[in-house]
Amino acid sequence: MSKTRALVLTGFGLNCDHETAFAFKSAEAISERVHINSLITGEVSLDNYNIMAFVGGFSWADDHGAGVIQAVRMKTKLGDKLLAFIEAGKLILGICNGFQTIVNLGLLPGFENNYQNRCVALTWNDCGRFRNDWVHLKVNTDSPCIFTRNLTHLELPVRHGEGKFLADEPVLRQLSDHSMAVLQYALPDGTPAGGKFPFNPNGSLNDIAGICDPTGKIFGLMPHPEALIHPTNHPDYTRYHQKATRTGKNLDECGMPPLGLKIFENAVSYFS
Amino acid sequence: MPHRLEITIKPHLFDAEGEGVRRKASDYFGIDLQSVRTIHILTIDADLSDRQLHMLQQEVFTNPVTQISSYDPLPVEFDRIIWVGYRPGVRDNAGSTAMEAAEDILGIKFALHQAIYTSKRFCLTGKNLTAENADKIAGELLANDIIQQWRIYGKNDWDPSKGIGYICPRVILNHEPRIETIPIDSDHTLQVISDQRRLALNPRDIPTIRAYFLDEDVRAERRLVGLDQPTDLELEYISQARSDHCNHNTFQGRFFYKDLSTGESNVVDNLFKTCIEAPTLELMKKKPWVVSVLWDNAGVGRFDENHYYVITGETHNSPSNMEAYGGAITGIVGVYRDPLGTGKGSKLVMGSYGFCVGERDYNGPLKPKLHPRRLLDGVIEGVRDGGNKSGIPTPFGQVIFHHGYMGKCLVFVTAVGLMPAMIRGEPAEQKKTSPGQLVIMTGGRVGKDGIHGVTAASETFSDHTPAGHVQIGDPYTQKKMHDFILEVRDEGLIQYITDNGGGGLSSSVGESARFSNGCKIELEKVPLKYQGLDQWEIWISESQERMTLAINPEDFDRFMELSRKHGVESTVIGQYTDSGKLHITYENKPCAYVNMDLLKSGFPQWEFEAHWQPAEHRGFFEPVIGEPDNFKKLILDLLSRPNICSKEWIARQYDHEVQATSVIKPLVGAGRDIHTDAAVIRPVLNSQTGLAFSQSLIPEYSAIDAYHMTACTIDEAIRRVVAVGGDPSHIGGVDNFCWPDIGFDPRRNPDGKFKAAQLVRSCQALRDICMAYEIPLLSGKDSMYVDGHLSGPYGGTHKVSALETLQFSAISLVNDVARCMTLDSKMPGDLVYVLGITRDELGGSEYYQHLGYVGLNVPEVTPSKFSLLYRALFRAIDKELVASAHGVYRGGLGVHLAMVAMGGHLGMKIDLSLIPCEGVERVDTLLFSETPGRFVITVAPENQETFNKLFKGIPYACIGNVTQKTDLVIQLQNREIFHADIFELKSAWKRPFKNL
Questions:
Q1: Is A129 among the domain residues?
Q2: Tens of pLDDT, residues B82-106
Q3: pLDDT for residue B466 is more than 60
Q4: Is A224 a known active-site residue?
Q5: Touching B: A residues 201-240, CB under 8 Å
Q6: Residue B835 has pLDDT above 50, yes or no
Q7: Per-residue model confidence as pLDDT tens digits over B666-710
Q8: pLDDT grade, residue B113 (50/70/90)?
Q9: Measured between beta carbons, which residues in chain A are less than 8 angstroms from residue B65?
Q10: Does residue B347 register a pLDDT over 50?
C-alpha cells in the first residue's frame, strides 16, 4: 500500500465523494472523505494529505453560478492553507463541480504562479440545460499534466448544466501556448470536435474539457473519470463483452478505452 | 431599506436561458421574438453597509469573466420587460442559499424578518410585441400564478432609475397563535365545523369521535390536564390520521361486488388485506430474502449477506397538476425520505419517474390549469432537479400520453436505497421508540406549507398571505440532512427514524410514539419559518425536508455535534413516554391529550358498491378491418406514435451515472439511443452483484378489463428485468394504483360502481399474478380521485377521468453484472429467436389505437407457462448463450424487432411464417398483437445447439438472422412484407420530439 494520502471533499450538496474516494482507494492511496467544515474547524488538517480532490455535485445547490459559493467559503476560511498546499507541490484535482469551484477560486489556470486570479469560467451549456452523455476526449500529450500521463484518449460521461468553457482570447492563447488545455472534446475518430454538438456537449471554446496549471499539478475537468471505475460502467460494455467472449481476447484488445482509474493512479504514483 | 442587485450575462456572451425562452415562445405560441436577455435579481431585505453590499456583489454574486451587475437597474435593451417573482411563503431555494453565502462571507446572521429574495427580469425585443403576448409568455411559460407574481413593462411605463422597485414577498401574519376548543354537542355541530375548517371528517367517523370525547372517564382524565372539549389541534390530528391518504380507507373498505352479466355477487372485505398483505405474507415463507415489509416507510430485501436494499414508490399528482415543477420536485425529494426513514435509515442509490399526461400537442376546447405540454416540461424539470441535486441516479423512467390525464396528470416517483444489514451489532431494518428517548425534528423549518393540501388553492391571495398549499422541494437542504443522518446512523445513534410527509409531525410523531406508547411534545420548540402559526398548523404542516428521530439522551451531545458539522438544524421537541397518551402543550398550555390507540378504536369501515359488466356487454367488439398492404408506412407511423417514439430528450436530462454504479443505462445500443428494457446498478462498488429495476404502464387495457391491464402490466415489468439478466426467483414488486373516483353518485359520479369493480378486479389480478410468479409486494401506494373538471368550449365544465392505472415496479438481483444483457443485436450472422407464443390479442393495442379502435381481445397472461420460459431465459443469459434480449411490449413484434435492429446498427432478415403462434391467420396480427410472455433474442450460431437443449419443451423459434447490411427485411416465406433501412426507421422513431 502506497503512503499517498488523498483527501476527498464532502458536504453541502457535493455528491461524487463516495466513488471518488473509492477511485483513489483502488489506485492504492489512503483516501478519506472529509467534510468541508472539518477542514474549516481544523478538525482535519490539509497538511496530512498529498492530494486534494474537489468533487462533483451541486455545492450550495449551485443557485448562484456553479461552484461559486463553495469557492467563496474555501477562499474566506481556507485561502492561505490552500495556497500553502500548492506551494508544497501537492496535487489538486477538480472534477465537474470541483472544476467549477477551483476555477472560481482562481487555482486554475494559475498563470505566473498566481493562484487567485479568476480569469476563466464554466457557464451554462449552449443547450441551456443539464445533460448526461458520454464524450470522446483527446488528451494533449504535450501537457505537463501529471494526472493524464501516458494517456492519449479517454471516453467519459459528462453530467452538467454549466460546463461551457469560456475565456478571453489572450487567456485561450496562453493556455494553448503552455499546453495547459489538457482535454478536448473529440469526435469518435479522436480529432477535436470543432464545437460540433453533441461531441462538444456544451459549446466550450476550443472544445476545452479540462485544463491544468503550468506545473501540471492542478487539474480540472468537466467529465467524470470516477464514473468509469469498472468495465460495466462503459455504455458499450455489453458489446465489447460479446466481442471478447467470441474472439477470446480481453476488453482492451477489443478496443475498450482505458478506465478513468488511470487518472487517479497517475496522481497516486506521482508520490511513490 | 432593502437593496436590489441586478446581475446579467455580459452583452457579447450567449444567454442560454434567454434563448430557451425565445425558442419556446415561438414553438409554443408562434410569438416571434428577436432576443430575450435574462436579468437575475437579488432583493436584499436587510440593512447592510455599502462595504458589505460591495463585497457581496464582487466576491459572490458576479462572475468577473461572464457577468455584469449593479445595485441600480441594468440598462438592457427591450421592447417589453417581464418581471417574475415568488409569492409570499413560497420556498425560494436560491434566496436561502444566497443568505447562507452572505452570512458566510460577512460573518453576520440574518434575523427572522430579514431575507434575500430572488426574482428575474426578462428583457424581450421583437417587432410589434404586444402587451397581450408578453402577458401570455409570462402567464403560460415563465410563471404560475399559484406560486408566482409577474409584471409587464412597456417602454413608456419603465422608469430606468426605479426599475422594478423593491419587492419583498415577506410573510406577515399578524396573528396571535391560539388554541380553540370545538363544541361537539351534536353530530350536526361537528359536521358543520368540519366543513368550515376543511377538516374533511367522514360523516360516519363523527359519532365515533364524539363518543370518545364525551366518555366520562376520558373527560375526567382530560380535565386533570386542563382540557375538556376537543381542541382544534386534536380534531386536525384525527382528520389527518383518518384521511384516505394516511389511512387508505378505500383499500381497507368493504366492496359489494356484483357481476351484472351472471348476477353473481360477493363481498370483498378489505382489498389490502386480501390482495396485498395475505399473498405477501404467504410468499415471505418461501422467500427468505424478504427482510421487512408491510409496516415501515419502505420494503426491505436482501442484497447480499452484508447489505439490504430498500424500495418504495409514490405519486404526487394533484400538486403537480397545479404547479408542475413544484409538485414534481416535492414528489421526488419526498419519496427519497422514505428509504432514508426506513429501518434505522438507508442511503439513496436510485430513483425513477413515470409521467402520465394529456396529448402534448392538444389543441381541443378543454382548458386544463396547465396545458399538457407545459405540464410535462414542468414535471420533467422538477424530477430532474430533485434527483440530480440529491446526487441520486435516475436510470429509468416512462411517459404515457392519454386524453384521460387531461383531468389530472400522474407523477410516479420511485426510490431505492441501500442499508448495511447490521449497525453496531443491531439489525438495521429494526427500530423502536422507548420511554425517555428524545423526540427530535431535523432538517427544514415549519411554515404553512401543505396545510389542508389542495383545498387551499381556492383561497384568494393578498400580497402577504403565504401560498402555502403548493410546495417546492429543496434537494440541497435534504442532501445535507441525508449525509448527516447516514453518519449518525453509522455511529449507532438512531433508535427510530421516520420522515415528515403527509400529516407532518402529526403522523411522524403519532406513529413513532406507538412503540413507546406515548409522548409529550412541547410545540413552542418547533423552529418556524415565520411567526404567527396556530398550534394546530405547526402540528400538521407538511413543510418538506424534515425527519423525526428518537435519540437516547446520552447520545444527544454527539448527535448535535454532527448536526452542526453538516449544517443541519436539529431540535428536541419533546420526549417519548409510556403514558398511553399523546400529550401536546404550547408554552405549558394544553393542546392535546388523547389515547394513543384512539385511531384504532372502532372507526367504521368505508363501503362501496362494485358492479362489473364484461366488455362485450359494454358494446366492445373486434373491429372489421381488411389486411393492410403498405406495412412500411404502417410500421414507420407506429414508430412515430407518442407512446412508442424516442423520449431521449428526457433521459439525457437526468444524471443516471452519479455514484458510479451504472451498469445498464436508460439508453443503450451502438448509438446509445434506444430505451433499455430495465436499468441495472451495482450499488456496492467492490461487488459484482447488481440490482435490476423496471417499471411498466399499460393503462389502455383498462378500457376493456382492469384485471388484464394489471396482469399484463406486472408481466411486462417482470420480462423487463429478466431481459437484462435479473433472477426470476428474486423479484420484488411495488404497486402504485392511480384510480378515478369509485364512490357512486348518480350525478357527480354515475359510473362509480363500475370503476369500483375495476379496482376489485385489478387487486384480484395483482394477487393472482404475484402469487403465480411468486413476487412479494415490497411496497405500494394508492392515489384515488384521478379526475378533473375542465371548462369547455361553452363555459360549462366537463369531468375528465383517467384510465384505471397501475404502475408496477419490479426489482431483481443480478448475480454477476459482467453477464448483463442489452437489447441491441451484436453481431452479423447471429440468429434471431422469438420466445413465446403469439396470439390474436390486439385489444387495446397501439395498432388498434392508431386506427381508432379499442377492440375486445385484450392480451392475457398465463404465468404457469410463462414462468418456465423466464427461468430458461435466465439460465441461458447466465450461461452466456445469449447475445441480446428484448421483451415484446406495446406495438408488438413489428415495433420491437425494429428496436433490436436499430439498437445494433445492423440489419435483420425475418420470416414471419416461423413465428410460434396460435389462432393467428394474419400478418398484421402477427406483427402487432401485444400478447405478453414474449421476447426477441439473438444468439451466436455456435451457441444454437446448447440453447435449443435449454429450451426443450418451451415454445420458441429461430425466425431469421442478423445481417451486416442495415436493412430490416420481413418476409412471409418468400413474399417480402416489409423492407426498410434501420436508419430510416430510427429517424421516424425519433421524429416526434427530435427538436426538444
A1: no
A2: 999 999 888 999 999 999 999 989 9
A3: no
A4: yes
A5: 203, 224, 226-233, 235-239
A6: yes
A7: 999 999 999 999 999 999 999 999 999 999 999 999 999 999 999
A8: confident
A9: 118-121, 166-168
A10: yes
The secondary structure of B180-193 as a DSSP string is: -B---SSHHHHHHH
Distance from CA of A271 to the nearest CA of B (A): 25
The CATH number that applies at residue A34 is: 3.40.50.880
pLDDT tens digits, one per residue of B491-510? 999 999 999 988 899 999 99
B519-530 b/e with 16+ CB inside 10 Å = b? bbbbbeebebbb
Nearest residue, CB atoms, B480 vs list A12, A16, A41: A12
* Tens of pLDDT, residues B295-333: 999 999 999 999 999 999 999 998 899 999 999 999 999
Distance from CA of A166 to the nearest CA of B (A): 8
Q: Which of B567, B653, B658 sits opposite A16 (nearest CB)?
A: B658
Which residue, among A9, A14, A15, would best test binding to B if mutated, counting the most B CBs under 10 Å from its CB?
A15
Rounded to a whole number of angstroms, the distance between the first and last alpha carbons of chain A is 10
Is residue A94 assigned to a domain? yes
A96 catalytically annotated = yes
E strands, chain A, are 5-10, 30-35, 51-54, 91-95, 120-123, 131-139, 153-160, 164-167, 181-186, 208-212, 218-221
Structural domain count, chain A? 1
Model pTM? Answer: 0.96
What per-residue confidence (pLDDT) applies to B240? 87
- Nearest-by-Cβ selection for A242 from B476, B682, B883: B883
Q: What is the dihedral of CA B844, B846, B851, B853, to 10 degrees?
A: 10
Query: Is it the case that residue B620 has pLDDT exceeding 50?
Result: yes
Q: Give me the helices (H) in B566-640, please.
A: 631-639
| Under 8 Å between Cβ of A229 and A22 | yes
Mutant choice from B384, B480, B545, B657 vs A, greatest count of A C-beta within 10 A: B657
All cell numbers assigned to A72: 467563496
Write down the pLDDT at residue B140.
Answer: 94
For the record, the C-alpha cell of B568 comes out as 443541519
Helices (H), B725-825: 752-773
User: Which pLDDT belongs to residue B49?
Assistant: 96
8 A C-beta contact, residue A58 and residue A16: no
> Which candidate in A145, A226, A234, A265 is catalytic?
A226
User: Measuring CA to CA, how many Å separate B280 from each of B274, B430, B708, B782, B861?
Assistant: 10, 19, 21, 17, 20
Contact check, Cβ <8 Å, A61/B476:
yes
Confidence (pLDDT) at B453 = 58
Quote the percentage of chain B above a pLDDT of 70. 98
Among the partner-chain residues B389, B817, B883, the one whose CB lies closest to the CB of A13 is B389
Strands (E), B234-319: 254-259, 265-269, 290-292, 299-304, 307-315
A267–B contact, CB cutoff 8 A: no
Short-list B830, B893, B895, CA closest to B674: B895
Question: Does residue A185 contact residue A195 with C-beta atoms inside 8 Å?
Answer: no
In a domain, A246, yes or no: no
Tell me, yes or no, whether A131 lies in a domain: no
Residues of chain A below pLDDT 70:
1-2
Interface test with B, best of A132, A162, A241, A245 (most B CBs within 10 A): A132
List the catalytic residue out of A16, A96, A145, A212. A96
Q: In terms of CA atoms, which chain A residue is nearest residue B93?
A: A63
Residue of B nearest to A161 (CA): B653
pLDDT at res. B463: 52
DSSP state of B883: S
Q: Which of A136, A160, A178, A224 is catalytic?
A: A224
Structural domain including A53 reads 5-124+161-183+210-234+254-269
DSSP state of B578: S
End-to-end CA distance of chain B: 44
